[in-house]
Amino acid sequence: MQIRLMLAVWACKLAIFGSRLLGKKGSSMPGQLAFKICPKVLKLLSQQVKKEIIVVCGTNGKTTTNNILSSFIKAQGYRVICNSVGANMLWGVCCAFAEKANLLGKLKADYACIEVDEASCVKVFPHMKPHLMVITNLFRDQLDRYGAIDQTADLLKRALAISPETKLLLNGDDPQVAQFGENTDRVCYYMGVDADAGMTKEDAQEGQLCMFCGAPLEYEYHHYSQLGKFTCPGCSFKRKPLDFRVTEVLMNEGLSFKLEHNGKTEKFAVNYRGFYNVYNIVLSYAAATLVMGEVPDYQKVLAAYKPQVGRMETFSINKPVILNMAKNPAGFNQAIATVSQDTKEKDILIAVNDKPSDGIDVSWLWDVDFERLLGGNVNRVVVSGMRADELMLRLKYAGFNEEQQIKCRTLKEAADAAVNGAGSVCYMLANYTAVFPLQEILKDMEGKSAHGE
Questions:
Q1: Average pLDDT of 388-404?
Q2: DSSP string, 106-152
Q3: What is the mean pLDDT of residues 274-290?
């Protein structure tokens, strides 16, 4: 078995090298090759992690949460395995471990911070047993692949049954996530925002029927989608007492809030956009606390953290250009809420594709609150991508007139039109396969702008 493991590691490293020579990420296919050579590659390598394996899962926010956590642990001097580019299915996880192993199949790692796709946990957990699993949220996403939210929840329940000793860190504000702490002897911890943050009540609200008795959940206050302080009038299901309690959230200049845990209160002030980042930050902090105890200088790590592609990524092209990935109603609505908080005149680019990794069913566009952009000091909206025609129709029904919309055949044309608009800032919202080429286009434009071209 050791020979097969060594061969798998060698093959993976060579495939990564070859993929990157060709300009590809090399973060998934090499792991598939390694798994074919040695089906126990992930099991044998993950068992060599000295301390703990943390898995981060959920519809939105898992890449940011996982990477902030990994960055903090690394900053404390530990060696960490992390699939930081978001290759979160079985092959990507295999690749992350094999890439860090030496040619003898030996792995020197203290921790592993691994992002795992919700539907892939049931495939990953037979090979790797996490000590702690973080679940950020569960929203409707890629209907043709995941189906309804309850189907995704069922896949996670099957995965957790494979790893009964795994502790859970749950977003207690999300009833779809909080359900995993019910009727179990498993150790569970909860975080949540324990105050009304004044978020819009017009957000698409789904997943608000009790999954135990079917009654409509009632809310003392509501943050977005199904997140808030909930209780079920038909049974005993309600938001649990919070182990990590957030209060006093402000979003005027970046994000600020208070976090209470274990009798201590810490103030956070970071230059991040979007209410949803409160959850990403606190879940990463909570996970670090649970696996390491004391977590000094966490805000320094937050300040130094560089977001992955399209996570409110900022470019300077004669004006600020902000790129954000949005791939489902909840993600788009939170991105729109963040854009609307910026009072400056703005141009917006929206790009949606329907490739298999995006989800070919785009009916969810009608659940996005594009109407909210009408009052957001928007100069014009540029649309592109494979579903540009559907976007044009959706924006028409949202109330935008033809003079306010531009449809561009290519992403490059769309980026040029948006950046050269009259607004003092430009926001670009794109789904999965559109965000990566847009980033490359913006990098090129930023470089030319810096050289006066």
A1: 92
A2: ----SEEEEE--GGGHHHHTTT---SEEEE-------HHHH-SHHHH
A3: 95
